[in-house]
Amino acid sequence: MQRMLGVALILLMLVAACGGPAEEVCVLETSMGTLAFRFFPGEAPNTVAHIKALVQEGYYDGQAFYRVVKGHVIQTGDSSATVDAEFNGHPHVEGTVGLARGEDPNSGAASFYICLAPRPHLDGRYTVFGQLVKGLEVLRAIGDVEVEEKYLSEARIAFHEPKTPVVIQRATIQRRRIPASEPHEEERP
Which of 30, 110, 129, 147 could join 44 via S-S bond, C-beta 3.0 to 4.6 A? Predict the structure, then answer.
């Protein structure tokens, strides 16, 4: 009996050391490096299913990050079938992945953003459906690319476009173990 308890304890320690159970993540292989983010299917089930379907059909392959606003967000995608808003309690912190939209809260489609910094003014106003778990340094590098400043409408919404395109070469859904205690799986020296 003690031997079985010892084996069980060792197995529990191994599972804890390796992270939680494997979960689906979206892996974006970009021209500047790889980004990977976990999904929040419990909080945004329709948005997660919508984005996964787009990834699986190859929609994001070859798409550029057409909007890079230093200290704010990077953004990719375009219009397609819309999905209703699924506002939730996830805060907009560095690496948060959310569904972009127009004035109508239910106008989110295929365009999504990744936050370059905390953006609390977006909390509860956009559907957060994921969080970056790998590639924080890549995200920061994309956020620092040289851009051509462009503003949309009289409201002067920044739609700064990279002078050298940052392209998603391939997007895939993969199963990975994600450390439960860390929001980012940053590269370590």
Answer: 129
